[in-house]
């Protein structure tokens, strides 16, 4: 090719050239230590995000949660966006102690009142001048000025808001420490590097964006500055690689912390993308013109149209006939937004009753068109309805992709069947009778040849706990099996057995159940009571366990929260003594009630009203069966034997180095966060993910949990 015809794109540089370019692009001199200021470095953004996160109960439920990037985008435009205005209105409501929410677009007077009433607390950045002086408004301010105003409102709310003050006083009822590490509303540094510079993980609730900040080594708050060092998953991974390259113990710990958080960041990114997709799809159906809506209104004698396309606007709705006897016309096929073609009801519109000759003609046409199907078309009455005794055609079972949608994406665009995969039906519930006579109820789903995932539930629930998780994991290709432990759910223990309810016997029963199904190897998902039960199985047969996912399933003393104080007193009492009987009565009144059952599900949840009431209602109904309170009290006492086995569990971890994922609801008061972090003591490669949830994270974070589990098993080649 001639030089004049050559493309403007140059050839790829050689390896030496790339290395030289990379070396020359490195900052030198003073630029190695300083970088230009960008809005992301403004510490007011982190301050706003964490105040929204830590005091979320004080805000209106309709207010969204924010990540650092949301705040940055919201204040950067020429006019503040809607979400930032909503945050401004919510903060004004707190500062002024308004019972009624301040309305967006009508906050001018409230803002003036807040600034005037706190004149003696104006920030130095205002230099004694009202920020609204000269006709200025929030929308005409610069991004930095907006951030200063929002941060100032937060400081005023901390000082004057009755709601915020009450939350702070309630939080400090417990023993106070100087570093406030035991305060759930405090914000603590994530880790520090070899230069003693602290790093902070700033993220909001409900899978909002995250950003990692690094502070300089300023000795005082006035000389301390924050810098954004990572705001994406790739940047966080690069930061982990940077620490991993350092040959120090502290850097290795920092690298592990970053890598253990990556699965949670990835799951949050997926959920944000889906949320944005749903919003975009909903916006696509919006019809601002008069006469249009998502649903076309009355459907008497007509078919309701649920979908739109851009080419349908030429319909003259003003002259549309809506009578039952509309003029017949040859309708085009209806196609939904997903591309599926909807067939007409026997070739006619709903409400249009055909004559007998027409019925016979149409039936014959349908039978001819679908001759490859063995099912007969039902005989119709004169009104066009199927006769009572007519054979009903069977509908094909929905595929797993149709049933569960895009819960988990496939690695390829096309799904190839090998004849062994799961059909996608509901999970199968069945019983198996063991040699001991116990009739174990269990749920199973997924392909029979898939890797086995054994799900062991906690107190006070049953395999019902996993009703939402099972189909997603099965759709990912795993053979999922979830039994009901004796004393829970629908497992039947004959009274003639004189069965002793202890964790040793629970483990023996599950071991017999596993043998009856010929499960040679399996991964375990353990939670609450399922943890000591499953770990006892691992002690007795360590080669059978391929991986462990523990969701608030404790194995360390550090994980036992204050919830266990009265139970420990029960352990110390002599069985049958007056003290023992008194403590059994107190435990029954405190823990074996409907309120306590519901509390386990809702406590620590950002939106407790979103928890399905069927969960704790069913648990409570099964707890009330005759004799079941005694069963639960016996298991409370037997839990002491699990604590005694903790050293054996730890020895198993150290010797086996079994792949372990600890997913923890960090607001759980039964098994606290420290119990999750403790796994890394004996399993340095253990992955720890903390969720903004309480004890039953599987109820509120089902999709996120499923994504974490499948990703973890895939990384460890449990296939």
Summarize the model shown.
With 719 residues, the protein is an alpha/beta fold.
What does this entry look like structurally?
By secondary structure, this protein is of the alpha/beta class. Among the domains are: 39-171; 191-281, no CATH class; 428-561 and 643-715, Alpha/Beta hydrolase fold, catalytic domain (Rossmann fold, 3-Layer(aba) Sandwich), CATH 3.40.50. Helix content is 39%, strand content 10%. The protein has helices spanning 15-24, 43-54, 68-76, 82-95, 108-117, 143-160, 162-171, 233-245, 249-284, 356-369, 400-404, 469-475, 503-516, 530-540, 565-572, 578-591, 594-602, 613-623, 628-644, 646-656, 674-677, 679-682, 697-700, 702-715, and strands at 191-192, 198-203, 210-215, 226-230, 334-335, 341-342, 428-433, 439-445, 452-456, 479-483, 522-526, 545-551, 660-665, 687-691. An 8-stranded mixed β-sheet has the order 7-8-10-9-11-12-13-14, with helices on both faces. A hairpin with a 5-residue loop joins strand 1 (191-192) and strand 2 (198-203). Helix 2 runs parallel beside helix 6, helix 13 (503-516) crosses helix 14 (530-540) and helix 15 (565-572) packs antiparallel against helix 16 (578-591). The radius of gyration is 31 Å and the shape is globular.
Q: List unreliable stretches of 5+ residues.
A: 1-13, 29-33, 287-300, 308-331, 345-353, 365-386, 388-421
Task: Please compute the radius of gyration using only Cα atoms.
Answer: 31 Å
Q: N- to C-terminal separation?
A: 52 Å
Helix content estimate: 25-40%
Please state the overall shape, judged from the principal axes of the Cα atoms.
Answer: globular
The first-level CATH class name of the domain at 428-561 and 643-715: Alpha Beta
Output the structural class.
alpha/beta
Helix segment count?
A: 24
């Amino acid at each position: 090719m001639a030089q004049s015809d050559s493309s403007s794109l140059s050839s790829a540089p050689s390896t030496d050239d790339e290395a030289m370019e990379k070396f020359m692009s490195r900052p030198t001199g003073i630029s190695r230590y300083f970088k230009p200021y960008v809005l992301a470095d403004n510490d007011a953004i982190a301050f706003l995000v964490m105040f929204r996160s830590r005091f979320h109960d004080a805000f209106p439920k309709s207010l969204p949660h924010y990540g650092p990037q949301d705040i940055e985008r919201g204040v950067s435009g020429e006019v503040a966006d809607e979400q930032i205005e909503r945050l401004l209105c919510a903060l004004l409501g707190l500062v002024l102690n308004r019972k009624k929410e301040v309305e967006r677009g009508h906050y001018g007077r409230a803002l003036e009142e807040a600034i005037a009433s706190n004149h003696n607390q104006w920030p130095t950045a205002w230099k004694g001048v009202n920020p609204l002086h000269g006709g200025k408004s929030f929308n005409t301010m610069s991004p930095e000025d907006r951030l200063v105003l929002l941060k100032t409102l937060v400081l005023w709310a901390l000082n004057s808001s009755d709601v915020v003050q009450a939350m702070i006083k309630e939080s400090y009822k417990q023993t106070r420490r100087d570093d406030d590490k035991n305060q759930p509303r405090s914000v603590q540094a994530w880790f520090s590097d070899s230069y003693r510079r602290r790093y902070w993980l700033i993220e909001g609730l409900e899978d909002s964006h995250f950003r990692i900040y690094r502070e300089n080594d300023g000795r005082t708050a006035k000389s301390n500055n924050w810098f954004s060092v990572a705001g994406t998953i790739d940047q966080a991974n690069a930061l982990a690689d940077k620490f991993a390259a350092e040959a120090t113990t502290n850097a290795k710990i920092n690298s592990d912390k970053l890598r253990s958080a990556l699965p949670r960041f990835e799951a949050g990114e997926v959920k944000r993308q889906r949320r944005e997709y749903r919003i975009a799809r909903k916006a696509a159906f919006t019809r601002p013109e008069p006469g249009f809506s998502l649903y076309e209104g009355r459907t008497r004698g007509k078919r309701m149209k649920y979908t739109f396309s851009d080419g349908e606007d030429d319909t003259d709705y003003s002259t549309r006939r809506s009578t039952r006897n509309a003029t017949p016309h040859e309708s085009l096929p209806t196609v939904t937004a997903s591309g599926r073609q909807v067939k007409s009801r026997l070739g006619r519109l709903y409400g249009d009753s055909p004559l007998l000759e027409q019925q016979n003609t149409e039936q014959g046409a349908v039978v001819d068109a679908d001759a490859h199907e063995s099912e007969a078309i039902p005989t119709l009455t004169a009104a066009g309805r199927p006769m009572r005794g007519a054979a009903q055609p069977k509908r094909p079972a929905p595929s797993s992709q149709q049933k569960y949608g895009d819960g988990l994406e496939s690695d390829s665009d096309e799904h190839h069947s090998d004849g062994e995969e799961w059909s996608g039906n509901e999970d199968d519930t069945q019983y198996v009778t063991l040699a001991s006579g116990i009739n174990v109820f269990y749920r199973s789903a997924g392909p029979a040849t898939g890797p086995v995932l054994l799900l062991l539930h906690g107190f006070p629930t049953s395999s019902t706990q996993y009703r939402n998780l099972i189909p997603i994991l099965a759709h990912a290709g795993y053979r999922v099996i979830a039994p009901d432990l004796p004393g829970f759910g629908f497992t039947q223990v004959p009274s003639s057995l004189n069965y002793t309810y202890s964790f040793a016997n629970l483990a023996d029963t599950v071991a017999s159940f596993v043998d009856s199904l010929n499960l040679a190897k399996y991964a375990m998902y353990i939670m609450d009571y399922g943890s000591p039960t499953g770990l006892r199985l691992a002690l007795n047969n360590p080669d059978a366990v391929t991986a462990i996912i523990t969701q608030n399933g404790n194995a360390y003393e550090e994980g036992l929260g204050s919830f266990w104080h009265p139970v420990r007193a029960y352990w110390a009492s002599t069985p049958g003594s007056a003290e023992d009987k008194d403590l059994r009565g107190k435990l029954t009144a405190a823990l074996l009630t409907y309120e306590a059952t519901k509390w386990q599900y809702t406590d620590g949840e950002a939106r407790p009203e979103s928890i399905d009431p069927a969960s704790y209602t069913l648990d409570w109904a099964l707890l009330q069966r005759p004799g079941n309170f005694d069963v639960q009290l016996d298991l409370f006492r037997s839990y002491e034997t699990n604590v005694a086995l903790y050293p054996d569990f730890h020895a198993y971890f150290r010797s086996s180095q079994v792949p372990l994922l600890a997913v923890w609801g960090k607001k759980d008061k039964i098994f606290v966060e420290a119990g999750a972090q403790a796994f890394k003591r004996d399993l340095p490669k253990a992955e720890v993910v903390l969720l903004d949830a309480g004890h039953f994270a599987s109820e509120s974070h089902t999709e996120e949990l499923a994504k974490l589990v499948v990703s973890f098993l895939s990384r460890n080649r449990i296939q």
